[in-house]
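User: Please predict the structure of the protein below. I'd like the answer in C-alpha cell form so I can feed it into my own downstream comparison script.

Assistant: Understood. Taking the following sequence of 156 residues as input:
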Amino acid sequence: MLATRAIVFSAAFLAFAPAQAIAADNPMGFALDVSLSRAAATKLASTKEGIEIAAYWYGEPTKAAKKRADDMGNINLGQEKARLPGTGGRAEISGKGAKVKDVGLTQGGAVKVNLNVYSARLGNKDNILDCSFFDDDLQLARLKPIAVLCKLIGEK
C-alpha cells in the first residue's frame, strides 16, 4: 500500500513540475537561486567563503503513523545538503536524500520542504549570512526556482 502511494505521488509530481526547476530523476528535487547583497558578496569574496544549503523534507503523519513522528510531530522524510561558491547562483537539490518510500506515512501524501541557507564556514568560524528561507509545500518548490536573498547578519 505504501509503495503504491509513493509511486502515485511520484508520477503526479513529475506530470506537472517544470523540467527546468527539478532534478529530472527524482520527484523530490527542486532548484533555488541564491543572490547576495553587495556587502555579503564583498565579504564572501574577501574571505573565500562558500554558501551551504540544507533541505529537509517532512510531512504531517497519518493517524496510523503518529507513533513514527519526530519531536516536532512530523514524519521526517530526509535531508540533503548542497554547496555553492561565495558568488551565489543556481543550486539543484536532487532529492536523493529524501525517503520517497515514506511519503505514504504523511497525510494525503503531502510533502513539505524546509530550506536553510547559510555560510559554509570555510573562511569564517561562524555563519555570517542572514538568508531568506523557505518552509512550504514541495509542490510549490518545484514550480520554479526558489529565490533566496542573503545579506550579512546585522545588515539592513
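That's the full C-alpha cell string. The chain has three helices and eight strands.
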